[in-house]
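Whiteboard transcription, Tuesday session. T.W. wrote the structure tokens on the left side:
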């Protein structure tokens, strides 16, 4: 009978890429889920700030503070309507967008980063 010393090494070499992609995929799903939950939280907090105060700078500061874990920038937060002309009873809309780059090899090249968006509407008090 022949020697089977290298068989386990060959099997490991064949299974390792599949396991690595599976592991990276799990990490990517966790990162996307975290970013999605953070965007939801940022949208609610910024909309609440906009519904009780008129200053857009403070609303953006609230959003950036709450979105610091995903490195949210000022350009990713849109307030509508902007400015000091908002009146009680009107609605304010906060839209937050974020791009999550994937860490899974080969997948990002095919799909690119995952684009997430959250829109929150609240009535101004």
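and on the right, the sequence the group agreed on:
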């Amino acid at each position: 009978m022949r020697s089977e010393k290298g068989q386990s090494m060959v099997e490991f070499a064949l299974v390792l890429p599949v396991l690595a992609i599976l592991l990276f995929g799990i990490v990517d799903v966790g990162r996307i889920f975290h970013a999605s939950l953070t965007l939801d939280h940022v949208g609610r907090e910024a909309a609440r700030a906009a519904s009780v105060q008129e200053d857009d700078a403070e609303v953006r500061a609230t959003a950036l503070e709450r979105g610091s874990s995903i490195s949210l920038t000022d350009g990713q937060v849109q307030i509508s309507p902007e400015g000091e002309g908002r009146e009680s009873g009107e609605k304010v809309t906060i839209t937050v967008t974020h791009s999550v780059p994937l860490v899974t090899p080969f997948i990002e090249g095919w799909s690119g980063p995952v684009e997430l968006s959250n829109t929150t509407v609240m009535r101004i008090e």
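Someone added at the bottom: Residues 7-123 form a domain with the Pantoate--beta-alanine Ligase; Chain: A,domain 2 fold (CATH 3.30.1300).
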